[in-house]
Please model this.
Amino acid sequence: MTGLVVTGIGVVAPTGVGVEAHWSSLVRGEPAIRPIVGFDPAQYGVSLAGQVTGFVPADHVDPRLMVQTDRWTWMSLAAATLAAQDAGYTPPEDAYATSVFLAAGSGGNEFSQHEIQGLWAKGPKSVGAYQSIAWFYAASTGQISIRDGYKGPSGVVVSEGAGGLDSIGWARRVVRRGTPAVLVGGTEAGVTPYALLCQATSGRLSTATAPEDAYKPFDRRASGHVVGEGGAILLVEEADAARARGVERVWGEVVGHGATHDAHHHADPAPDARQYARAIQLSLADAGITPDEVDLVLADGAGVPELDALELEALQRVFGGRADPVPVTAPSSFTGRLMAGGSALDVATALLAMRDGIVPGTAYLDDPVDAPGLDLVQHSRAQQVETAVVLARGFGGFNSSLVLRRPTEERTS
Amino acid sequence: MTTTGCRVVITGIGVVAPGSMGREGFWEMITAGRTATRRITFFDPSRFRSQVAAEVDFDGRKLGLTAHEVFRNDRFVQMAMVAADEAVADSGLALGAGVEATDPDRVGVVLGSAVGATMRLEDEYVAVSDAGTHWLVDPQYASRFLHHALVPSCGATELAVRFGASGPATVVSTGCTSGIDAVGYGSQLIEDGDADVVIAGASDAPISPISMACFDTIRATTGNNDDPAHAARPFDARRDGFVMGEGSAVLVLEELEHARRRGAEVYCEVSGYANRCNAHHMTGLRPDGVEMAEAIRLALDHGRIDADEVGYVNAHGSGTKQNDRHETAAVKLSLGPTAQQVSMSSIKSMIGHSLGAIGSIEIAATALAVQRGVVPPTANYEVPDPECDLDYVPNTAREQKVDVALSVGSGFGGFQSAIVLAHPTRRTP
Model:
């Protein structure tokens, strides 16, 4: 049986554009949660977000394409290019050999708000020709496929925050069925008035005005989360195919995935964390490993006390029997929650931790809650990571868990 | 890496379609060749170029939904819930709280939708922006269920909660192929051994001003407002665009042995599925149909089925100039000489094009055609187009034993999907 490897990472995130910029923000412990710019959010009871301030779309996207697309797609186009460059990937002669399989959670927010605004203020003729292709959830996948000439089986999965991991789970099915390379992950751009209002009605956003008070997963003073934008796109390849094209660097192997749904309530999480724990157990079984072999968990880190407690309960169910507590970190605390983009970015972060032997901390985790049997990581520290578990939950009860392993070649050196 | 080789069958079908009630009403309607396209009644369409749609006379409360379910969900989710209720009841599976006949951890949900809660999104926007007056929308006018209703994954959540399905769940949103892809992905969950049962289907409710306006500007929808009942004319030389539709179909997909053990009635087997992208244009199609042909060929390969076994093609047949030409070429390219004999029809001529939902509705129609030996017609077909020269089953349903049928779709973004259904008694060559 051959494996699936990550060979390229493209990051467009509040912590930086490009994988190294993002990583150095995390390692240095510099969160990117700041006052919202672009509009006044005061009436939504929210003042902070993780916005991608260093992103110049015109540096990455053809101006003719820019006018047809939303900021969300600009970020996806940029991240896809960065991932392919990072992998040294040039489209092979067989156009069917590459797929684009992304997650999406909110579509082209700003673009469509603008068009609906025009429709109601001025009438149907004010709606432009690109609304039909700019806002729907498949826009970024379609545009990447067209720009880069990828004709493989492409898709779009929507499971809110869990989407980034689920896209990798689906990519494994694509690879099993014979397509050797798939772009996965996703980005989001929902720091816009209407999209922010929608997210605020979830009741899960922090109303704090100081970054250090706002999004504090696993802290005793946790009071909700901060939204963010951006994400990551990664290139995953069938291992033999990657070797055959002479790939220079493998970031890591995707060795297990598990997904479940709480099936409990349309908004509230199940009170017993059973399905969340089961997703983790399914991913470990899929990887053929025991909980003892996991060196690091990148948690969902919702920042809502009830959700944090359920996550810790799920982790204790799975890892509670270990002699040494498993390190648990929540790097989304540096960027805010990016919906589908966030879990994809966490996969990038896990691979960086493996590369450098550095575990990033959890921003603003000053006073951790009690978590017996778990090691909540407050500050970045040196630690070898051979196997990491990345977790994500999606609003409504989606649970997803992905197991990554450091590449074999590097482990022996 | 390989799949487990589990085989997938359809054991339940539920449909919410324009002009009819439920699965049997839908089947009766499309085999009678009756059309459900009419002048739009949901809003005053007079300022729009295209003023015709296939609307569902839908009242969730009358179809078993609670007032809370109706209040918190967009129409697309409500339709999916009603279709899923019918499908699950039809399958005879005991799903839901307290019932352990099927392990709920082995039941998955895959729901397709191209545009999700677009109606609710627009209605709420009108309120919070005061009809487009304020860019900084006013939270005082927002529904407290705004987030739940607009996050597109809520469709999968509602179905998972409804049936206690704690296996893998997701929404698939690949534009107008969402409905085929959702059933394809659901089948993959079973093939790969990750579920025994998948509630799979799609739903869309896009008959709203913003959706009509955005297709108006690119002239994808029909301008034939004078004769709404005959506005959708797939493959006819006079076709001038698609008629917007809405609706949902949900299927119960089941692992073959699981279905056999409980003695379930099987409509058909899902024998193959594939999708490809054209990497050409977000809305444009090259006339050669190469990528759709590739998807068809791979879907047949997946089921180890030869092209000459295909007896029926349920076409995408949207009724745009370019689609019907593209699709005709793709079928010729993939099926070879069989294309000249195959029956091929578009039910969009009767129920319009419900974007992502239509793929699942068409799979439902195809499964029923295979089970019942009747092929639904293409309505409003009168004037042949030299570029579309296959047998489109004009206007009258045809009795025909179908061992293998194909349902295909094509969508914005360049997506091309194909799925193969086979009669349960088909002999494997």
Notes: The two ends of chain A are 24 Å apart (CA to CA). The first strand of chain A starts at residue 4 and ends at 13.
